[in-house]
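haha ok so turns out i had the wrong file open the whole time. this is the CORRECT one, sorry everyone. sequence first:
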Amino acid sequence: MSSLVPQPAAESQDLRARLRTALAATTERLGSAGVPSPSVDARALIAHAARTDRPLVLLDALPEDFEARLEETTVRREAREPLQLILGRAPFRRLELRVRAGVFIPRPETELALDLLRERTDGPLAQVVDLCTGSGALGAAVLDELPAARVLAVEVDEAAAELAAQNLELGGPGRGRVLRADLLGEVPELAAAAPVDAVLSNPPYIPAGAVPQDPEVREHDPQRALFGGGEDGLEVPRAVVAWAARLLRPGGMLVMEHADVQGAAARGLAEAHGGFAEIATAADLTGRDRFLLARRRDDAPEGRHGRLSR
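then structure:
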């Protein structure tokens, strides 16, 4: 006896065919647009259009607006809008962070900062400061992976500070706080946080004359989060180093990200400021210089801006 309802096998075959067609076409379009990882991005857009976090091979149905949603997001990615903005989230270590237009998007290379901190820290990691927090990525990861830690995240931009507060709650509800402040000025509330066990930072560091090559960065990341100030791009990183010297307890660690050509210059900032030992550069997973590491000396004099206060 025949049935008016398609058999499950026929439905499954039709679904697989639609997904294969969508994957091939979307990958081709993204590749033609110069997207660096067209197949990976195509799968992410298809999953987003299907409203699922499950692997595509496990899907047994697609929403009615699947093709329309996929077309809309593919057009946006073809125009080199960052995938994270399209999806509304960005993976960072164990978390799925919220992202929004106008706020710096977390990068995978920054994830290594927390591993470097944990490997090189003597003593507790109970009080951590995240300078130039942006979306709050590093601070949120600290809260997520160090349940006893508390984080003070500092950010000058209002929109970024609002987003960071949301992401800190994802990492550890009630254990993170955002302070909106400009590190280039005097910030009594930040100075009062000393002493802390660690300072993490991914500050803006691009030199004034440099132009980011990727459209995703050049056209979508805020200029304020990219350019570090001064011809060498090190005005804000220099302030980060100075604040770390003020904030860290003896033996506390500074881990600061920088451009792959700034290793020597970043070490020079810590050496010139004084108060640090074991100053070194750590490479990212591709072998490029990426992080300044510096330990607060046990015998370090008071910071240049005066006595630390609680």
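Strands lie at 89-92, 95-98, 127-131, 150-155, 176-180, 196-201, 248-257, 276-283, 289-296.
again sry for the mixup
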